[in-house]
Amino acid sequence: MMGSKAAIFATAVLAVLFSTPAFAQMSSPPAPAPVSLPPSPAPAPAPHYVDLAELLSVAGPFHTFLNYLEKTNVIETFQSQANNTKVGITVFVPKDSAFAALKKSTFSNLTSDQLKTLLLYHAFPMFYSLAEFKNLSSLNPVNTFAGSPYTLNLTDDMGSIYVQSMWSRPKIASSVYATKPVAVYALNKVLLPMQLFSKDPPLAPAPAPAPESGASDAPSPAAGKADGLAGGKGDSTSAAYSVGAVSVANSLLLAAAGCLMLLW
Asked: Which of 27, 70, 102, 189 is the most buried (most CB within 10 A)?
């Protein structure tokens, strides 16, 4: 009887122990620690590409050069190079006035391949800032996008950069755009390589001077007639004045003669 009571008591004690939270924590395995994952990297920003056609259409004016680029599809070659952010491109763009200074036959006589070469001759397949031209001039002649032997010579004359081809030596007039990988510089002359032009192309004829407008120095017939009328009127007035003066003098003489007769 005493043994069964002891067994029941022991069973009750064990039940109480197993039901307590402390024992439950001791008997259950520890929960795994939360795993912290590193933050995912932000996506790289898309590279900014300069639209050369849009840039040349709003700057300048460079409409003639842009029309030639689009006509020959050279604009696509330049744009592909501009999108290559590792090397970039440098483009020399003649103004519209530079093309207008040459005869139209200068470019109409070129074949399509020659015209394309002429346009490629106006670019370097590398980005160059204005500050880099001074060091670049020591490497003259410099190969252009047209390849060898289409080269240019660069000269830094006290900060003024000159780009020399066979038949022209224009100065960089302004920096249109110069942020890597794209540099665009304006020229006041077209670059003309001797491989395409055996002699200096003729200039366009100078425009005829506008006729001078203004009154002629010769008097008009109406004016002469008016002057004649005015002159005639003046002459008649002078004659009348002279006749009146003579009449007064005669009257004075007659009065004097009468006085003398009275004295006598």
From this structure: 189
Contacts of 112 (CB under 8 A, 6+ apart): 72
Q: How many angstroms separate the Cα of 179 from the Cα of each of 11, 56, 62, 90, 204?
A: 87, 15, 19, 10, 36
CB of 92 closer than 8 Å to CB of 191: yes
Question: Token pair 């302004």 is at which residue?
Answer: 174
Quickly list H helices, 20-73: 21-27, 52-58, 63-72
Model pLDDT for residues 32-43, shown as the tens digit of each residue: 666 666 777 766
- The rounded Cα 114 to chain-centroid distance in angstroms is 26
**Which residue, 50, 103, 92, 47, is CA-closest to 187?**
92
Q: How far is CA 7 from the centre of its chain?
A: 105
Model pLDDT for residues 73-114, shown as the tens digit of each residue: 999 999 999 999 899 999 999 999 999 999 988 888 899 999
Residue type, 148: S
The Cα-based distances of 142 to 71, 77, 105, 120, 258 in angstroms read 27, 19, 29, 13, 120
Q: Is 214 helix (H, G, I), strand (E, B) or coil?
A: coil
